[in-house]
Amino acid sequence: MRVIFFGPPGVGKGTQAKLLSSRMQIPQIATGDMLRDAVSAGTPVGLQAEEIMHSGKLVPDDVMIGIIREVLGSPRCARGFILDGFPRTLPQAEALTALLEELGISLDRVINFIVDEQEIIRRLTRRVSCPVCGSIFNLGVKDPGGNRVCPNCNGELVQRDDDRPETVIKRLSVYHQSTEPVRTYYLQRGILVDIQGSGSVKSVHEQILALLNHS
To answer: Catalytic residue at 88?
Structure first.
């Protein structure tokens, strides 16, 4: 199974990708993880990305595609993968299509998560994370308690700068301008399906399994 999880920030792509990854025993491929793994492994494109990131610049598309080529062509993706957070722009989507054709890989589905924008803002601005173990909590949904200590490792929970209200609104604006056209691209290719992402984690997971014909 080879799928892309698509949608604006805060719709639950990462949570659902982890669940599906565990259930189907295929890797969740997140952009940040790919970069960190490539840098840690010291691959040529990883070293190139590290130099760019240290200079404070964004990693260009050709370098990202190089990293994705290494990941998708590796044995760990032989049974499938879940791309989480990529592509984010139309040029990235077109480059990914060319790469998959080169590798002889076809996508099964692009799953687009639909959540009301006010709900997205509410979710993100109430999100806290643990910088130690990476656990994420949404206050009022899975509230770790008033002491703001991670129940998994006792790290201090913090709100990331990009989850502050003014930043969330800017992130959504960037999404509509730069990323939303990717939905039309995959819709025209006949592989994009919308799902409602505003239900419980369990109900959204069940939607995905039904869509992929897995129970």
So the answer is: yes
